[in-house]
Write a structure and sequence with these properties.
This protein is of the alpha+beta class. It is 61% helix and 17% strand. A 5-stranded antiparallel β-sheet has the order 2-1-5-4-3, with helices on both faces.
């Protein structure tokens, strides 16, 4: 008699493990798919936003650059730097020297890094990924500024995807935890409902074997 309940409990446990494993695989697959597509969407939205802001800075700063009006340039930059995902904004001359920046102490500094050289040589909008910090995804947007087809400066903006991705991961984790908890409850109830008739059949067979 002692083996019969153990057999039924073992069968119920196998059903529970099987259904739970299937649900976890489905949740994992769906979570990865959601993260991938949402990441692409966030990247495109932030990219479009950065391009729009950098273009606006390039167009509105043209007269101030021609007049060497540093205060107007700084005011334009200060009005845009408040965006949470923007790291830095700068306007460079054709040699790569900082005319104005969201970090005022950088004014007059000559930049010759790879991203700057690529930005200075590009004739159109250019987007570059910065690899200096592997734990943080940072992109650099550069827009050339022309006056009568002659390049006079370059507007640059660096922005991070860390905050949007952090919120996305947190949301997926919360949804995943809730889904897994519900799936465990459902798997237990489902495995119990399936194993109950088998358990009752085993018990009836045992009683029949004893002559009842």
């Amino acid at each position: 008699m002692g083996m019969k309940p153990k057999f039924a409990l073992k069968l119920q446990g196998q059903f529970f493990i099987y259904f739970t494993g299937m649900v976890l695989l489905v949740v994992l697959f769906v979570s990865i798919a959601i993260f991938y597509f949402q990441k692409q969407l966030i990247l495109k939205q932030v990219e479009d936003k950065a391009i729009s802001l950098t273009r606006t800075l390039a167009y509105t700063s043209l007269n101030a650059i021609l007049q060497n009006n540093y205060l107007v340039l700084q005011s334009l930059i200060d009005s845009m730097i408040d965006e949470p995902d923007i790291i830095s904004i700068a306007i460079l001359d054709t040699a790569g020297r900082v005319i104005a920046s969201s970090t005022p102490q950088e004014r007059g500094e000559l930049l010759r890094d790879r991203l700057t050289l690529n930005a200075l040589s590009a004739r159109e909008i250019i987007l570059q990924k910065e690899f200096s910090n592997p734990r943080r995804e940072v992109w650099d947007t550069a827009v050339p500024i022309f006056q009568l087809n002659q390049r006079i400066a370059t507007a640059r903006m660096k922005y991070s995807l860390e905050d949007p991705f952090t919120g996305l991961i947190r949301s997926i984790l919360v949804i995943g935890v809730v889904t897994v908890a519900l799936s465990l409850i459902l798997a237990y109830r489902f495995s119990r409902s399936i194993s109950r008739p088998i358990r009752e059949t085993v018990q009836l067979a045992a009683e029949y074997g004893q002559g009842n």
